[in-house]
Every structure is written in C-alpha cells, then in structure tokens.
Amino acid sequence: MSKKYKFFLVNAFSLPADSPYLHRPVEGPKEVRLMNYDMVKDHLGDVDWDLHHGATATYGDWPVENREEFALAAAARIPIVREACESQKYDAIVLLGGGEPGFFECREIGLKFGIPVTACAYSQMHFATLLGNKFSVIDMAESHNMYYYNLIIQHRFDTRCASIRNINYPLPRPGGDPYRSINKEKEIALNGGNSDMVNTAIAEAVSAIEEDGAEVITFGCSALFWLKPFVRNGLLELGWNVPILEGYSCAIELAKSMVNLDIDASSLMFPPDHPSKWRRKKVF
C-alpha cells in the first residue's frame, strides 16, 4: 500500500560503530537506528521514509556539543541533503538532531528544488508558540545551552522563550563524568527505576513554569527527547497540564503541513544566485 508522503530523514552526524561514546545505535534496520522510534512511529505511519545515518564526525568519535563541532557537522551534512534533493525522490527533508546543524543552508538548497526542509529546534519553537505565550527549553550541557541560545535568537523567538534550563547531563565525550550518563539514566527510567536525570528534568520544568513563566516545555538536544513522556507524566502528577514537545515529531509534522499546503521558504529569505527581482534595502 502506497504512503501519502516520501521523506528523507538525515541524522546530524554518525560515529564509528566501535566508538566508546555512542549515544544511539548505528547499525541495524532504520527503525533501530532512528532514536526513540517507538515514540515517533505513529507520526511516520503515512510516510515512506529513508534514514541517512549522517556523515561520520570529523572532529572525533564523540557526539556534537559545541560550536566548532556543530560547524563541522553542518558542512558534512549539506552535501547529503543536496544529493537527496537532486534525486527528486522526496517530498520533504527532515533534519534530525536538536541543534539542527546546517539547517539554513539546507533550506536554501531545498528551495532550489521545491523541497521543504524542516529541523527540530525550529519546528519545536513554532509549535510551542501556537500553544502558549512562552516556552522553556530543557537542555543538557552549558556549551550546548549557549549554542541553542543563539538558535532561539536566529529563529526570532527570543521574546517568546522564557528560559533554557540546564539539567547538566552532557553527552559522552573524553574527560566526561561517567556517573552522569544519559544512556544509563535512560535505561534506568525505561526499566521503571528512579532516574535522577528524569527527576531533575521534571524539577527544572516546574521551575520554568513557576519562576520563568513558561506555558510550554520543549527540549534542546535530541538525546533528551526520550524524556518527553516522563516529564509530561511528572508534571501531570503535580497538577501541571502543559504541552510537552520533542523535536522529531514536530519536524515530521511540520514537513507534512508544508507539503499539504504546497508551501516552502520565501525566495526573499533565500534568494537564488540570479534573482529576477532584488530589493535595494533590507530593514530590521
């Protein structure tokens, strides 16, 4: 039975299979390699989708977290997206990864081929502002917080973002604290145990609501997206009924909406090399 959509999902980067810092599977069928597949599979039910593992990280064998690493990941992902667009096989491109490296550049490429490109931070922020006056971001490390801070400004949501809340569970990398492991905390939580990371995320979400004025909760790094049901349930138990978003489902659903509406980014935002019309002045 044919599906309604044909999407290309591409990870921000990949790591060698023997890396000691793996935070998601890099081998097996696409359903195994797509992080938190069980949480987003309903959003993919009407989608015929391909998954690209992402370009192998050139900076080292650990996940991307700081600005230098994001820049390198962006440069490596751009040609993958161009090749997918040139194939003309897809209705939309979905960039995976909370920090969305290369998003603006990939949107520029996609527009040339009439293919919408969505990404996780951008999509979460847009949906969040449909649902409440202000949103907060639960994120995992100081360097990533400040990278994400710039994304919020770049996407012009600085007046709608209440705060970024740091739970201080960095991605695995050389010199990191082995006792603050996202993978270990995820395993504890999924097995019904008492996870300090989950408890901290819930506590920071409560503080975002009570102290910062957040009415919607989102997540920064995609390594935290699994927290969504735990934070949602934890808040409900405390009496807080607020929307909780994660990037994969938002990016997939935004891509569907753009395909359904037959729209893409403005060519004034991403002008071609030789535009038929040009503006003498750009105002702020």
- Provide the residue-averaged pLDDT: 96
Count of structural domains: 2
CATH class of the largest domain: Alpha Beta
Strands across the major sheet, in which order? 2-1-3-4
CATH topology of the largest domain: Rossmann fold
Counted beta strands: 7
> What series of H and E elements makes up the topology?
EHHEHEHEHEHEHHEHH
Instruction: Please give the CATH architecture of the largest domain.
Output: 3-Layer(aba) Sandwich
What does the radius of gyration come to? Answer: 19 Å
Task: List low-pLDDT spans.
Answer: none
What proportion of the residues is helical, as a percent range?
40-55%
What sort of overall outline do the alpha carbons produce when their principal axes are compared?
globular
Class based on secondary structure composition and strand pairing: alpha/beta
Could you explain how this protein is built, in words?
- The protein has 284 residues and is of the alpha/beta class.
- The protein has two domains: 5-119 and 248-261, Rossmann fold (3-Layer(aba) Sandwich), CATH 3.40.50; 122-246, 3-Layer(aba) Sandwich (Rossmann fold), CATH 3.40.50.12500.
- It contains ten helices and seven strands.
- Helix 3 (67-87) runs parallel beside helix 4 (103-113), helix 5 (120-131) crosses helix 10 (247-261) and helix 8 (196-212) crosses helix 9 (228-237).
